[in-house]
Q: What sequence folds into this?
C-alpha cells in the first residue's frame, strides 16, 4: 500500500510540474504570440484557462496558503513512510535541488539551507512591508 501512496505523490508532482509549465510557458507563448502575431494565441479558451491558472497561484500567494497540490503530496508521502521538507516549497524543490545534486551530491545537506534563507528573507520582507502604513489593510465599514 505504501508504494501506491508513493506513486500517487509522484503523480501529483508530475501534475504540479505540468501546471507550472502551463502557467509560465503559457505566459511566454502569449508574449511571443503578440510579438510574432500568432493568430492561435488569441484562442479565448486557452486565454481564460491560462488566466485562471495564474489567478489561482496569485491568490494562494496573496493569502499565504500552501498550494493544495503540495499539501496533498506531503500527506501522501507521509502515508508512504517518506520524509518531507515542509519549509521548502515545490518550486524550490523543483528548481534548486536537481541543480545542487548535479553539481555535487555531497553539498546537498549543506546547500539545502538556501531555500530556507530565501523563504525566511521573503517572510521578513512581507512583515516589513505590512509595517508600512500604506501597505496595511484598512478596516472596511
A:
Amino acid at each position: 500500500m505504501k508504494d501506491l501512496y508513493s506513486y500517487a505523490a509522484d503523480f501529483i508532482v508530475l501534475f504540479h510540474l505540468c501546471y507550472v509549465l502551463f502557467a509560465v510557458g503559457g505566459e511566454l507563448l502569449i508574449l511571443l504570440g503578440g510579438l510574432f502575431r500568432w493568430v492561435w494565441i488569441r484562442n479565448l479558451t486557452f486565454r481564460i484557462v491560462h488566466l485562471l491558472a495564474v489567478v489561482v497561484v496569485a491568490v494562494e500567494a496573496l493569502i499565504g496558503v500552501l498550494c493544495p497540490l503540495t499539501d496533498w503530496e506531503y500527506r501522501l508521502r507521509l502515508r508512504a513512510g517518506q520524509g518531507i521538507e515542509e519549509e521548502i516549497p515545490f518550486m524550490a524543490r523543483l528548481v534548486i535541488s536537481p541543480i545542487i545534486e548535479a553539481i555535487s551530491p555531497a553539498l546537498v545537506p549543506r546547500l539545502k539551507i538556501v531555500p530556507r534563507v530565501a523563504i525566511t528573507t521573503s517572510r521578513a520582507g512581507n512583515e516589513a512591508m505590512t509595517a508600512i502604513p500604506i501597505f496595511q489593510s484598512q478596516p472596511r465599514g
Remarks:
- The chain has two domains: 1-84, 85-136.
- The mean pLDDT is 76.
- The chain is about 75% helix and 0% strand.
